[in-house]
Amino acid sequence: MKKYDLEKHLTKLKKSKKFSYLREIGSQAVQDIADRIERAYKLFYENRKKKQKSSPPNFKKVRKYKSFMLKQAGWKLNEDLGIIKIGRENYRYFQSRRIEGKIKTVTVKRDPIGDIYIYIVTDFSEEKIMERTGKSVGYDFGLKKFLTASDGQDIESPLFFAKNSKLIIKKNRNLSRKQEKSHNHKKARLELARAHKKTVNQRKDFHFKTARQICEEYAVVCLEDLNLMGMKKLYGRKVSDLGFYSFVQKLKYEAAKFGTRIIFIDRWYASSQICSECGYKNPELRDLRIRKWECPECGAKHDRDRNASINILRVGASTLRGDEVRPEQSGICC
Length: 334
Hints:
Blueprint: H1 3-14, H2 27-49, E1 67-70, E2 75-78, E3 83-86, E4 89-92, E5 103-110, E6 116-122, E7 136-141, E8 145-149, E9 155-156, H3 160-163, H4 165-176, H5 183-217, E10 220-224, H6 228-242, H7 244-258, E11 261-265, E12 292-294, E13 301-303, H8 304-321
Helix pairs in contact: 1-2, 4-5, 5-7
């Protein structure tokens, strides 16, 4: 079924008694359902082409549907009074920032606790800040340390989920003891959701503060393009706890405000295996358990992650200048 046919089908469903609730959220919100299904299937087929494990979109119960989007109709905003009208109802809201530009879309979201958020997208574009000159740094993402820096200014892994795991386990056990659909079950579920939200907020706060700190200090930041899907297969919970992808997105956001340039090097570049002093490639370092090693050619002693961060900086800086990257060497000391 094509998107247009699905929209026509949803319009027919609105007229039936069983699906009368679709009339409460407006026609544009119903059209957005078709848009989401189309995007989900496109992503599914793209992942299949890339041979990445992915599942097709499945049915979701109405009570689990946590957001809907409106475009030019179905809402009315009064910023002075802090009131938004959706459908026939008025709602008060707390405004986190002043709205600039013409509003394009309004999305209403509900989190697992039941708090409601309004996300507004406008056509306003901030003035682009020119890239500045200054210090450069290379970072290697790791499981022992969150970021190992080429200049020694490392950032430790906070692992908020691991720190809060005892509380989450306790709330999970409490929930499992409650009778399903009972008042106590609902109360226990909310307590568990609050424990998870605490972890999410702590991680988000750490990411933003770290990204801002880096962008204030450095003009060029070199990173490795991570294969997160592969990492999750080996270290699923820990990789999810660190939230590397989420951090990179926030780093890009902060970099745009400070004029910091973010450079990604090829994920297949053997940054850990190459001696940062002479360029010798050590094939034994495919074993991740080896954390320290000595170059058999020049005798330099390396910490695996520190050596990788120095190589990442060198390759990123060479890319920035347009130079050729020093070739990998095998058994030949520079």
